[in-house]
Amino acid sequence: MSLDVGSHLKAVRQMYGLSQRELAKRAGVTNGLISLIEQNRVSPSVSSLKKVLDGIPMALADFFTLDLGAQPQVFFPREELSGTPIISKAPCRTASATSGARNASSSAPARRRPFNPLIKAAYRRPSGSIGIQ
Helices 20-27 and 31-38, interaxial angle, to 10°? Predict the structure, then answer.
């Protein structure tokens, strides 16, 4: 198994929310070195990689055993979403629409907001007494 040190370092740096400049400042190296390592233009020695990882802080063993592939992708670039409808053109059904009234696609706008059962559950009064009579 070969590890792409540059992309792995970039992923770890971003996971900790650090910019290249901030990591370089913490590690005592130039931000150009961080950039070169992340682009795989240079292969860092063990001592220089340890120095960079001390700025995170992270041990060498943790760096090489950290599995970044197991994390789910939450955000997707716009290019990956092309062809996927972002906004549905389907008519919006409101609480009054389910009881036989008009829906949002008709000529007159609906006067009620869409029903959300979570809001009702959030504002439900607690059952039971609080001890005051």
Answer: 120
Kindly give, in sequence order, each residue whose CB lies less than 8 Å from that of residue 112, ignoring residues fewer than 6 positions away. Answer: 94, 95, 96
pLDDT digits (tens, 9 = 90+) for 7-52: 999 999 999 999 999 999 999 999 999 999 999 999 999 999 999 9
Helix (H) or strand (E) holding 64: helix 60-65
For the chain, domains (ranges, CATH) are 5-65 (1.10.260.40), 91-124 (no CATH)
Per-residue pLDDT tens for 61-87?
A: 999 988 876 656 667 677 777 665 555
The predicted model scores a pTM of 0.51
d(CA 44, CA 121): 56
DSSP characters for 46-59? HHHHHHHHHTTT--
